[in-house]
Amino acid sequence: MKPTLEAAMEHFGVKFNSSRNTGMAQCPLHDDRTPSFSYRLDEGLWNCHSCSNGGDSFTLIAKYSEMQEGKELTFPEVKQYAKDKGIEEGAASVREDTYTSRYGGGRRPASKKPGRKTGDGYVPAWKRK
User: 43 with 57: CB under 8 angstroms?
Assistant: First the structure.
């Protein structure tokens, strides 16, 4: 299993609001004075708008090791690092299960029914006959 993004961020000393699913924080990969590190805990994804890095918890561990410690890690080494440091494992949810439209007030879009045409049924006057 993959380490949770929240556990990886806590391990590297990222100050973030753990009660919120999404947010901004200071990036642990470089000297950051303003929050440029955006995260989404339910999906386990992050992106730094300043240094243009992003990914999941494995990517955060690998990039931190590369940029702060000067040591490039392979994927098996990243997995072993997480295990050795006791970074808590967990699973991120799938986007389809958690995503809702922010334009619709957080409600899920209506599912399409098979065999029905898309649209609201309106036909312009010039097409009616």
Answer: no
Judged on CB neighbours under 10 Å (0-12, 13-18, 19+), 11 is buried
Whole-angstrom distance, CA of residue 27 vs CA of residue 30: 6
In this structure, what DSSP letter does residue 109 have? P
Angstrom CA distances, 43 to 64, 65, 95, 97, stand at: 20, 22, 7, 10
CA 118/CA 81 separation, integer angstroms: 50
pLDDT in tens, 100-125: 555 655 666 566 666 666 666 788 88
Which residues, other chains included, contact 32 with Cβ-Cβ below 8 Å and sequence gap of 6+? 26, 50
What is the pLDDT at residue 101? Answer: 55
Does the pLDDT at position 4 exceed 60? yes
Distance between CA 39 and CA 112 in Å, rounded? 31
Locate tokens 């929240």: which residue? 6
Model pLDDT, residue 46: 94
**41: helix, strand or coil:** coil
